[in-house]
Amino acid sequence: MNQEVTRPTTGLIAEDEAPQRRALHELLRQLWPDLQLVAVCEDGVAALEAVERCGPDIAFLDIRMPGVGGLDVARAVVAQGGLVVFITAHDDHAVSAFETGAIDYLLKPLQPLRLERAVARLQQRLALARQPDVQSLIDELETRLRPAAEHRVRWISASIGDSVSMIGIDEVLYFQAQDKYLRVVTATTEALIRTPLKELLAGLDPDQFWQVHRGVAVRVSAVARVRRDELGRLSILLKQRPETLPVSATFAHRFRGM
Question: Given pLDDT bands bounded at 50, 70 and 90, which one contains residue 133?
Fold first, then answer.
């Protein structure tokens, strides 16, 4: 007699703090031994790549990772039909407002009883035939958690040759990693800074600058069009520069519907 083989539930952890990452990994092994963890990631870029590669059913995401945060990863997870649990150090209304079966949250330091309750909710939600549409909830959460305008980067102090220039953030078309530096490119000039891209992104307006590659962030309004080649790879053509910029598969979801 043939018996139906049930596919194991798969999960992903993305947490940039090693002690929290280890604690969550160990607690999940105890509370949900049947959960198959397909990836345990130290940052959002690795998590996005793992989502594209593995399509986990559930993702436990630190909401405030440098560079690519939990919200960007959550969008990719939800687009593939997965569920999300955010990890945060702050119990504020922005997070607690979304304590639902589809988007839950855990406070740091992690508490076994709270995680056990989240696991029970996830198991109940997974048993439903139809998953809710939570993209709008993620959009609202991003709005509530967005840094205040006064804390965003307004000026870049960058090296041009043997001098230092002040470049207004409104002039910048894109940033691109180059060896140990970050290129700051405007319509007419290029300069170098030592700030890592993931650190700089934390101070940029996410509505104005999108990370499109592990080493590239582009001003959305500077994009003329997005081109797809015969292999399905995307590249960006700019309005004011002749070069094209690569879009990795990890960030291709940003241009769906464009």
Answer: low
* Mean pLDDT for the chain overall: 85
Residue 4 lies in a domain: no
CATH number of the domain that residue 191 is part of? 2.40.50.1020
Domain with 173, as residue range(s), is 151-255
- Does a structural domain hold residue 3? no
Is 64 in contact with 70 (CB distance < 8 Å)?
A: yes
- pTM of the model as a whole: 0.65
C-alpha closest to that of 12 among 86, 65, 64: 86
Residues 53, 22 share a domain: yes
Per the structure, how many domains does the chain have? Answer: 2
56 and 182 fall within a common domain: no
Which residue shows structure tokens 């207004």?
168
Helix (H) or strand (E) holding 213: strand 209-213
- The candidate with the shortest Cα–Cα distance to 96, out of 119, 114, 79, is 114
Query: What token pair was written down for 173?
Result: 């078309």
pLDDT tens-digit series, residues 65-81: 876 788 888 888 988 88
**207 pLDDT higher than 70:** yes
